[in-house]
What does this fold into?
Amino acid sequence: MNEQHPLGPLVRRWSRHSSLTPSDRDAIIALPYVRKTFAKDAYMVREGQRTHECSLLLRGFAYRQKLLSNGSRQIISIHIPTEFVDLQNGILGVADHSVQSLDRCEAAIIPRDALLEIAARRPALRMAMWIDTLIHASIFREWVVNVGRRDARTRVAHLLCELVVRLERIGMGRDGMVDFPLTQEQLADCTGLTAVHTNRTLQSLRKDGLIQLNARSLTVLDWERMREVADFDELYLHQEI
Amino acid sequence: MLRDLLSHSALSEDDRQAVRDLPTRLRKLDPGSYLIREGDVPTHCSVLVSGFAIRLKVTGEGSRQIMAVCIPGDAIDFQNLFLGISDHAIQILTRSVIADIPREPLQELLFKRPAISAAVIHSTLIEASILREWVVNVGRRDARARVAHILCEFAVRLEARELATGEGFELPMTQEQLADATGLTSVHVNRVLKSLETEGLISRRRRYIQFTDWRALQNIGDFSRRYLHMADHDVITQTY
It folds into this structure.
């Protein structure tokens, strides 16, 4: 039953980093939820909004972003299926940033109180939520480094490496090829660059035979060299747990 | 640490006592020393009792980026309960006292007491929120705004722990470290600090920063304290 259930992938992902009992797993599957489809670029959460729900991404991609008073935008993270895009809003109350869909995506909308309740009653699930939070904090730290201290080429390459590794981890990539949902403008907003600069950087990675990038898919052609160009060490993704 | 947890979460007297009863070992650490280095396997979780520390990473090219400044009361590596290898280094900024807590009793406490673990998770979420703001800061703000923003953040965080008054604070960082926190060069940081001073927004006596126009500084720094999720801003803190 878990195999087919929309929350099954969450059970599988949490089981990888936490030891869940069968009854913990059943408690996840028993969570109330509503399936909701978002069109491309739709807002899933708006900055400043008070939320009483958490969204678990089932299909498609989403991103977190903040708008600055000068009108520019910074994308803070990319979310892939099986991840909560806004677990923190359920606990912190007010959304400190917006979440938008990158492409047509589908989410399971779970009432906050139901999540808080299983967290209160089940230590293993509470810890699993915490581990998710800790891993995301680790990814945010790496993004600070990426935009703070790496040059344009390294930044872009690093982001591409991160996406490939995370997608492969949930079985959404093979042989270095993954779905690639970002436009060049969005890639620029992830890396703190201009779209023009990002475009030039992608060209150079292509020309050097490191990547192949089509409208919807990205392939890393030379993983060893790409890793070096990107200054990429996946330790921060904490794959070991 | 207890005070930090209580700032956003309601804990029963019983829970409070359980936190106080955790076995701890106090250590003094000197500026520049490392609590942990990137790639180390940690054996303890720690709380910064007094003093300041930074989280940092060094890129392949050898440049440093500071990702966070830890202030007294911060749990500095509770993540190590679960994440096996430290993904960054923690360096001591000023003479500090650290309370080491062994992993097992802490883990047990968090397993047995939902309110405490919810409070600890809450702190982690705020830390993550601050990190997101730092991505924005170095990604999309100009040098002036970056430096002004970090000064505002520091002041508000210190004030919330009653470690500074609203008027100013002692900056525990050198200009070089400020540069590493904002993705700038120290020359650039120096120039920005001077210009903020010339314009009457701050005044400086050695490392003491005094706010002479707090409102204007916030505007320049594009600073809004929402991301710090302080109790007086969010009412939903007693949900557990």
User: Anything to note?
Assistant: Residues 205 and 211 of chain A are 6 Å apart (CA to CA). Chain A touches chain B through 58 residues (CB under 8 Å).
